[in-house]
Amino acid sequence: MTISNHLSGSAETSRRDDQVSHDADVLATLGHPQELARQFNLWSMLALAFTVLGTWSTLAQNLASGLSAGGPVSILWGLALVTFCNLCVAVSLGELTSAMPTALGQAYWIFRIQPTPFGRFLSYMCAWINTFGWWTLTASQTAFMTNFILSMKTIFEPNWPAAGYGWLEFLIYIGLTLLLTLINIIACRKDRVLPWINNVVGAQFTLLFLAFALALLISVGVKAHLAYQSGSFVFGTWINTTGWPNGVIWFTGLIQSAYGLTAFDACIHMVEELPAPSRNGPKVIWLSVMIGAVSGFLFMMVCLFCVQDIGDLTNADLPFVELCLSTMGLTGAAVLLALFVVNGVGQNISIMTTASRLTWGFARDGGLPWHSYLAMVNGYWHVPVRALWVQGVLIALVGLLYLFANTVLQAILSVSTIALTISYGIPIAVLLVVGRDKLLPMQGEFRLGRWGFAANVVSLIYCAITTVFFFFPSDPNPAPADMNWAIAVFGVMLVIAVGFWFVQGRSSYLRTEESMLRELVSQAGEEDVLDVTRYGDDDTAKDTGVVGPGMEREHRKRV
């Protein structure tokens, strides 16, 4: 029995080693050494992706916008439509992830399937848009947690004067940003810590979903002065208080659902830390969308059944807090909301982790200023510390707007969904333009086959339509303070990206030593290079620049 167990353990270890070696080989054919430990497994990566999406809590936080722009019909059936479309986007990106599992993700794929000067420029723009999207998403979650932390005081003291002080919001925001950055650095010192944190946050997020749903239902059921809404209200009521025609509102009402199902590219940028990424990466992407959508649909049903006064919710600064207070009472709401804040900070850890890997991947391919400096992986902490700190500083600078320009701050925070959606659409559009047969020589384990074209077309139409309506203001005749300034912020982002292209990007992006190697790899044929990587001796690897197993840690200087 002991011998059998020993042999079984040895076989498992051998399989694991073979997988590690194979994953390093595949990454080497993409022009990069294996610098980050593949510390996640399928479940811990799924936990990260699920918590980054945060669908049920995100939908709850935006309940007021959904109620005023279409009402329950838009909230539930709009979510069903958005789920179908996002699954098409997810499997489309999953197919590309399976073929080319690298942290830069969408931008890398663009240049790989269209290796022309224009393709390189489009790739660069997509990289900036995607990076801006993740930076603003991190800032958005941090700002939201700031507001929720302050709300824990205001639910006990509604007229607390300090609640509106910009300097207090800024201090909490800065404190959270510093805390999240430090956790992301320290947690990577040991390989198992960061996945463990994500597992805990994912489990808490699931339990919190059950706790809130049961608390809302039970509270309304046992209190005589409360009543459930009817099924006809929950599943069939249309509400439009915006001033826009109903046809426009149907599309703008999708924004709430789209926001709750955006950022499923988290796994794409974490894929270099996932074993068997060609198989597991796509699985995590579409599963996170499906699980997020189901949990979101169920929780929205609960919220709609438990709504008491729609006017109070739509006029509240934090409608979900108002819903909890009106049903559970002060004590019950305070306890659950405190747990919600703790878990929200945990979600923010995962969001910042993902953003940092994209920042690092963009720098590694020569896209960011001081890219050589930012691309270094710290040898002690086993994480791109410099990229994390620079990213933290940039996110902290956004918080300065609390002090003097809150309208601009809200516009910056709202642009994350737009940027991420556009970053999904660009590689899919390029693939359709150049032809899906371009993907055949590099296909991974996850393939869409004959369904690929249809999934790509649905994805592109969805990304185009939602992007347009993301820029619409909440009513057709808004005052300057009510304008949707996201289009102006996004325009500034594009100007910055184009400016950096002419200053530095056109000479350095995808022109690093490793990027040039990748072009040689592509020209030589993937199988030949895999043979060199897997079986070649060290001298051959040094001559070609291709790293084999055991050499990846030495290929790039670590600090």
Automatic annotation (TrEMBL):
Compositional bias (Polar residues): 1-12
GO cellular component, one term: membrane
InterPro entries: AA/rel_permease1, Amino_acid_permease_CS
Keywords, ordered alphabetically: Membrane, Transmembrane, Transmembrane helix, Transport
Source superkingdom: Eukaryota
Gene3D superfamilies: Amino acid/polyamine transporter I (1.20.1740.10)
Gene Ontology molecular function: transmembrane transporter activity
Subcellular location: Membrane
Membrane-spanning residues: 42-63, 75-100, 121-144, 164-186, 207-228, 248-272, 284-307, 319-342, 387-405, 411-433, 453-472, 484-503
This protein's name: Choline transport protein
